[in-house]
Amino acid sequence: MNDAKRTAIGILIFLIPLAVAIIWKLTADSTLFYSPEALIDPETRLRSYHKQWVKAGGADHSYSKNRRHFRNFESGHTEIRMIQIPVPDQTDIYLILRAQNYLSYTKTSPPWESRKTLFQFGQWKKWFNPPPYPVAAPPLETTAPGTINKKYVISLFDSNGKLMDETEPRPFNGNNLTELTNARDFFDDLNGDGWIERVSGNNCGTGGLKGTVKKCSVTRVGIPTRVLFEVAFSITYGSGDKYDWTNRCADSNGDGLYEIQLGPDKTPFVPEVTFFWNERDQTYRSQQGQSGVHFRVIEDWEDIEEILKTGSFTEPP
Description:
Elements: H1 3-28, H2 36-40, H3 45-55, H4 70-75, E1 77-85, E2 93-100, H5 115-118, H6 121-128, E3 146-147, E4 153-157, E5 186-188, E6 197-206, E7 209-220, E8 226-236, E9 245-250, E10 259-264, E11 273-278, E12 283-286, E13 295-297, H7 301-310
Antiparallel strand pairs: 1-2, 2-4, 3-5, 5-6, 6-7, 7-8, 8-13, 9-10, 10-11, 11-12
């Protein structure tokens, strides 16, 4: 074999995997993945989500930059649900719930990113034929999911299938994880107005102040999302303390409207404070007023800071 043939073969060995990589890249970035249909289709849902997540900057953070590659992103997921959310007098939007297993994320890099692996057949084989990662993708859900009994990452998509997570204002004020340690998240039309609302809880603290406060929020699911009601309860000082109160969402009187209930975290749960939807005020009110020994309706973050500073839910005179 003469030198010319050796050179030609060498060039082909270099160009063939490079061409495959370019074709793969162009195919993976196809606009076919940027549509509601791609999200709805269980076969393409996770990849479509990933494309938009990367485009929106989700992979720009130091802790997630390796997940820019779909193989790595896929390996850390167990389920991705999609729920169609009605919006009165407008086109429906979509809610995505992703279940992750952070411990299973792989850190494989494409072979073309390194000279060392570019000509290693085993690396190409591993990249194009990775081990299976079964990710459940149920059919599109068209009813509100009700109580959420699993840890999910929540994302919101507009009617055109565009991811809204990185837009301002952030959906749900950035509270994009479902709660399992205390009360469960709940999605339904709580007040009969045709909108879907989310009932969520999270622990609130602030720099320089000890302790945390449990907060329950009722948020209308739309673009943008809108907080309808928030109440704080159960101050906790010290990591070993247990939250002694919790919240529930229930239609206790059977009128088709849900109440927000607060009470001791015991079984059976017996509410001590119940908030009912007030149509005139477009928020929730209780017969016990805006505050008590264990709770306080809040308007902004300053209320949380005041509760932690004073150790009391009673509003100042």
